[in-house]
Structures are given as C-alpha cells and as structure tokens.
C-alpha cells in the first residue's frame, strides 16, 4: 500500500445501532469539589499485546466501580477482544491470554462501546495510568472514531505523594500491595488487577481526607504542586 492510499483509506462505517450508541454516550464529568466518598469512579486495567503505544493492541479490559466510598462488586466489567491473526508473543507469558481466547473474544467495536457505556461520565483511575490512557484512546479512535476525553488519575502517582513515609518512589503495583498487606488473587489479569488497584485507591483516599484533599479537584491541585516540587529537586 503506497503512502497516499494509506492516508486516504477509510475505516469501515459502524452499523447504525452502534453509531446511535456512540452519539448517546454522555460527556465526561469534570473534576469538582464532590467529596471522594460520594464520587463514582471507574478503576481500569488493560492487558495488551505488548508495550508499543503505536502498534500493540488492547486484548482485554477489566474494570470495577468505586461509589459511595466502597468497591461495588455488582458493577464490574470484563471482556476479551477478538483480534484477527493474533499470535503467541512474549506478552502471553505475562497475561496468559492465548490465541484461542483472543479468537473467541468480542468484536472490538462492540467491546469498546460496551465499556464506554459502562464508564458513563465517570473519571478513570489506573495504576501507571498514562499507558492505559494512551492505549484506550488509540483503540477508541481507530475502532469507533471516538475521542477519549475522560480524565485519568494515576494511583501510582498518588501513592508516594500521599504516603511518603513508605519511601517507595517508583514502585509497581506489587510494591504497594505488599506495603499495605493487600491480597492479590491473580496478577496480570485485567479484572484482578483493577480490583486490587481499587482497594489501594480506597486506602489512598482515606489518607487524602486526612490531608484535606477530599475531592478530585483538591487531589489535582495537590498533584500539580507535588510534581513541581519533584521537578525542582531534580534540577
């Protein structure tokens, strides 16, 4: 395929029902002064075919809801996406999603649209959120021609800011779950990782309240100041 053909190619049009569902998706809710205990948040974890933000694909989505200050176990999302031609790669050794599971997965447009309907207008939480945010944004753009506008909050960034006494600067999810003694059912499984991230987030929200940061808006302001201090120390 030459460069001109690549630039001018069009993605297949979505069926009318999926177009209608896309149009009906609510606008994301901006950060405000709503207390954390009254805020609905969706905690997300993605499993992907690799770590290349330009080429790798989302293979599975796991998400749980925090609402009214608790994890709502009746509100969970989990699905594996169908990917044509998916082959065994090094990532299979991490997430365990075999080609047979991917072949039996849900059609990507339907899976992503169902997740966005589950998400609604809620903000998103993730551990190392930058990766999940970029992978999800590209998947939505390529598959549904949707722009991801929901704010993401990084639990991996909140944790050292709110718990400096832990002295864990660049820790992973395993480091923080071990620090707080959380039980992890199965690592590198989207739903299980989302659940333990949600448990960690609730601990951090409790610390945030004690530090007079009891809203997403207050946390945003605290994170901005914290990043500036870190940048100043690194100069």
Automatic annotation (TrEMBL):
Offer one example of a GO biological process linked to this entry: DNA metabolic process
Tell me a Gene Ontology molecular-function term this record carries.
Answer: 3'-5' exonuclease activity
Q: Which SMART domains match?
A: EXOIII
One Pfam family hit: RNase_T
Q: Which residue range or ranges hold the Exonuclease domain?
A: 40-210
One GO cellular component term:
cytosol
| Record InterPro entries | Ribonucl_H, RNaseH-like_sf, RNaseH_sf
Q: Which UniProt keywords apply?
A: Exonuclease, Hydrolase, Nuclease
- Its recorded name reads DNA polymerase-3 subunit epsilon
| Organism, as annotated | Phytopseudomonas argentinensis
The top of its lineage is:
Bacteria, Pseudomonadati, Pseudomonadota, Gammaproteobacteria, Pseudomonadales
